[in-house]
TrEMBL record:
<dbReference type="Pfam" id="PF21853">
    <property type="entry name" value="DUF6912"/>
</dbReference>
<dbReference type="InterPro" id="IPR054206">
    <property type="entry name" value="DUF6912"/>
</dbReference>
<protein>
    <submittedName>
        <fullName>Uncharacterized protein</fullName>
    </submittedName>
</protein>
Length: 150
């Protein structure tokens, strides 16, 4: 299953090293197009559902970071875990929320970084524009996410 995971500071070292996978602890929240999300939206294009799940993860990354840095960018990793590694968690994560009930290995597919910082995204009335980085570009994605934003 493809999941979208806001990156935490604890994962920065692995990204800088070029790791192709992240070891995720039990209880970790993420966002994905799980069975109920598909069932609740019959006829929706699967790519639109993936976009919505990604945007939910970006929103959480922008609103749950350190409040003393309102210009921080969101950094979200897109990756794959076995379907059995996740359980739906709509109470905690909204329509696309999932949780890992046990530790799991996330195989990194790509990184997404918001073009603007949290304050600018909040002032805008559209979904945040995202920059895409290949799975091999974790360090570059992290550098961009940490660079001063507008």
């Amino acid at each position: 299953m493809r999941i979208y995971l806001p990156v935490t500071p604890a994962e920065h070292a692995a990204l800088r090293s070029g790791a192709g996978a992240l070891e995720l602890p039990a209880g970790r929240s993420a966002w994905a197009v799980h069975a109920s999300a598909r069932t609740d939206r019959p006829g929706e294009d699967p790519e639109d559902l993936e976009y919505d799940a990604l945007q939910d993860a970006v929103h959480v990354a922008l609103t749950s970071g350190p409040q003393e840095d309102p210009d921080r960018r969101a950094l979200v990793v897109a990756g794959d875990v076995p379907d059995r590694a996740v359980v739906e968690s709509p109470e905690e994560g909204g329509a696309y929320g999932i949780e890992l009930p046990a530790p799991a290995t996330l195989r990194i597919a790509a990184f997404h970084v918001s073009e603007l910082g949290a304050r600018a995204v909040e002032a805008d009335d559209t979904d945040p524009a995202l920059l895409w980085f290949d799975a091999s570009e974790g360090a570059a994605a992290l550098d961009y996410a940490e660079a001063p934003s507008r």
